[in-house]
Specification:
Radius of gyration: 33 Å
Structural class: mainly alpha
Strand content: under 5%
Strand order of the largest sheet: 1-2
């Protein structure tokens, strides 16, 4: 009688989706702690700092002071608000990953490399689309498009409306949330430096526009940039499903160059000419005035260096694509074997390609010899 032995196999390793869901559950519990803190008087004061926007001021809109509006400025407490909405961004990231991207990945059966790139483009395309629509709404409601001189007129605009401040808080929270996502998504070590570079560039420029009271210029520059980046990532999603799809990349290449030119033109026009001709050019931290020569040079230098870096990466990307495309389309020419005249005659007599056929013994010459 055979005795069954107990299996000594190790327990199955937790799947990647379960690990992501586990982290999302922990983060959602932490976020719920701050929300539940609003219900109790003891913890409400501390929870409000994380959940709501801080540093609001109520000012009259009309001269008779019959209507008032709330405006905001920035301060150290904004870090707490950014932390809370960073948790919200992690939760939203996990929802999109589980209910949208993972289902598509199971159907398409991507490789590991395409799987990670598909997830990256899927998350970024959703964020860019949402931010672009939100930014356009702010530009229209704040009359930034109808009056471009508002970019440098009445500087410094140290008071912001609710939607402008909430937009910048959300942007900073999203890009800060990408740091823990590098661990949650099990990003490869060779891809981490590339992602850290563009995450750092986003945080540097968005935080710089927020702290230097250049929020109007930053908002105008972010909207077209986000639209171009959305077009690239949505084109890459279509490319993963059909590798023959190239139209989106061609349109993106044109708009990318135009976007870099628009960024340089608006930056030079606002910082180099508009702010340079302003009357108040004294450094004053209390009023948030940073309109001095050194700050203007630093702002223009950082923008120009970033645009040059992006163009350099863009040119390398296009050269690599053209090289791969030309290699893929080059047909392989097969050399035909050279056949001599005598060899072809021998091959004709013996059959096909010089091989002896069944009719070889009954050639006309052999029949003549037999008859004689």
């Amino acid at each position: 009688m055979a005795i069954r032995r107990k299996s000594t196999k190790s327990p199955p390793i937790l799947s990647h989706e379960f690990v992501l869901q586990n982290h999302a559950d922990i983060v959602s519990c932490v976020a719920m702690v701050f929300l539940l803190g609003l219900m109790f008087e003891i913890s409400a004061k501390a929870s409000i700092i994380f959940v709501t926007l801080q540093y609001n001021v109520t000012l009259p809109v009309t001269e008779q002071a019959t209507e008032t509006a709330s405006f905001y400025y920035y301060g150290i407490k904004d870090l707490a608000t950014i932390f809370f909405y960073m948790l919200v961004a992690i939760i939203v990231h996990a929802i999109i990953q589980e209910y949208v991207l993972d289902k598509i990945n199971r159907r398409m059966h991507f490789s590991k490399t395409k799987h990670s790139k598909f997830n990256e483009s899927g998350q970024l395309s959703a964020f860019y689309l949402f931010s672009c629509i939100w930014g356009i709404f702010i530009l229209v409601s704040e009359n930034y498009i109808s009056d471009p001189t508002i970019l440098w007129r009445s500087y410094p605009p140290n008071l912001m409306t609710f939607q402008v401040k909430f937009f910048y808080i959300s942007q900073l929270a999203y890009w800060f949330h990408t740091f823990p996502e590098l661990y949650f998504q099990k990003t490869k070590k060779e891809d981490i430096p590339r992602q850290l570079v563009y995450i750092g560039l986003y945080l540097f420029h968005i935080a710089g526009a927020y702290l230097l009271n250049l929020n109007r210029l930053g908002l105008v520059l972010l909207v077209p940039h986000y639209f171009v980046e959305f077009l690239f990532h949505i084109s890459r999603l279509f490319y993963f499903t059909d590798e023959k799809y190239q139209k989106g990349f061609s349109l993106w290449a044109v708009l990318f160059v135009l976007g870099r030119l628009l960024t340089l033109i608006l930056s030079v026009l606002t910082v180099g000419f508009g702010l340079a001709r302003a009357e108040n050019q004294k450094l004053d931290f209390s009023t948030g005035n940073f309109n001095v020569l050194g700050v203007r040079i630093a702002v223009l230098a950082s923008i120009c260096i970033t645009q040059a870096f992006m163009m350099w990466k863009f040119i390398n990307f296009q050269l690599r694509r053209w090289r791969e495309h030309s290699t893929f389309q080059t047909p392989t020419v097969k050399k035909k074997p050279t056949v001599t005249k005598g060899r072809s005659r021998k091959g004709t007599e013996n059959g096909v390609n010089g091989t002896l056929t069944s009719n070889g013994a009954d050639s006309p010459r052999n029949r003549k010899e037999k008859s004689s």
